[in-house]
Amino acid sequence: MDTQRTARRTTPADLHLATEIVTLAFAQDPLWSWALARPDGRIDHHRAFWRLFLEGALRYPASWITEGEEATSVWIPPGGNEMTSEQEERLEGLALDYLGPRADMYCELLKRLESAHSCSEEHYYLSLLGTHPDRRGQGIGMWLLKHDLEVIDTEHAPAYLESSNPANNLRYQGVGFEPVGEFSAPNDGPMVTTMWRTAR
């Protein structure tokens, strides 16, 4: 662990900052750039989607951000859920408003993600892990993930994630996650790998 780096819990006061990091980090992600694509090619609407996911997650004190504000990890704790019913309705509305004819595919992707995430054992769920593009490639995101897992290990809890980019699978395996399944997005879209890390 790099002793020069530190992280703190993300709070609702960090909503704008965390949204910006995630929006920029996932702009070119194989899955989410496909899922949020618009016929006109615009991407400014991505921020509204990610803000809603962050609003849901920041109901819990489980997410982290590096002190240098380069990377954020978004966690749902054991027994938690990503969004309230009201937030889920808002998400459907965003899909209809911004994605037009692709809204159905986006909603179907969310259903497939939820179906794949059917674990009987309570666990921490890594909803999002993103690094600002200006700081990508410096190991900051993986440092943050290792930091978080050390905290989770003090609770002896397992963890789960979905890898939306195959390039990251080996990185996740390097910190103890193992592939447990995979599925494709609708219409033969990008592949998603589900990964599990047993309690330590």
Question: How would you describe the overall organization of this protein?
Answer:
There is one protein chain. The protein has 200 residues and is α+β, with helices and mostly antiparallel strands. The protein has one domain (7-152): Aminopeptidase, CATH 3.40.630.30. It is 40% helix and 20% strand. It contains seven helices and seven strands, in the order βαααββααβαβαββ. It has helices at 15-25, 30-35, 46-57, 85-99, 103-116, 140-154, 169-174; strands at residues 7-9, 64-66, 71-76, 124-131, 159-163, 178-184, 191-197. Strands 1-2-3-4-5-7-6 form a seven-stranded mixed β-sheet, sandwiched between helices. Helix 4 runs antiparallel to helix 5. The longest helix is centred in the middle third of the chain and has 15 residues, at 85-99. It is globular, with a radius of gyration of 16 Å. The model has no long low-confidence stretch (mean pLDDT 95).
Task: List its traits.
200 residues, Aminopeptidase, seven-stranded mixed beta sheet, 40% helix, alpha+beta, 7 helices
SSE layout and pairing:
Blueprint: E1 7-9, H1 15-25, H2 30-35, H3 46-57, E2 64-66, E3 71-76, H4 85-99, H5 103-116, E4 124-131, H6 140-154, E5 159-163, H7 169-174, E6 178-184, E7 191-197
| SS elements, strand count | 7
Count of separate structural domains: 1
Average pLDDT level: 95
Query: What is the CATH C level class, in words?
Result: Alpha Beta
Major sheet: 7 strands, mixed
How big is the Rg? 16 Å
Count of DSSP helices?
7
The CATH topology annotation reads as Aminopeptidase
If classified by CATH, what would the architecture be? 3-Layer(aba) Sandwich
Q: Which percent band covers the strand fraction?
A: 15-25%
User: For the record, what is the CATH homologous superfamily label?
Assistant: Gcn5-related N-acetyltransferase (GNAT)
**Which regions contain 5 or more consecutive residues with pLDDT less than 50?**
none
Shape: globular
Placed side by side, the strands forming the largest sheet appear as 1-2-3-4-5-7-6
How many angstroms does the end-to-end distance come to?
A: 17 Å
